[in-house]
Amino acid sequence: xxxxxxxxxxxxxxxxxxxxxxxxxxxxxxxxxxxxxxxxxxxxxxxxxxxxxxxxxxxxxxxxxxxxx
Length: 69
Prior knowledge:
The chain has 2 helices and 6 strands. It is an alpha+beta fold. Strands 1-3-4-5 form a 4-stranded antiparallel β-sheet. Strands 2-6 form a two-stranded antiparallel ribbon. The protein starts with 10 loop residues before the first strand and ends with a strand.
């Protein structure tokens, strides 16, 4: 399921990330990689705020929809 459908506060393992290579590389630089653990903190104003490796990261809903957990 896409990250946009994950429940708040629940830990999820990233299965795969689809999209342009530049987008995947950007997410990897933020610590969002396949096999990593991500927790949705909140969804607001078209962004999804997640906790990854003890860091809070905001990604757009469009990009979050390409992250499968």
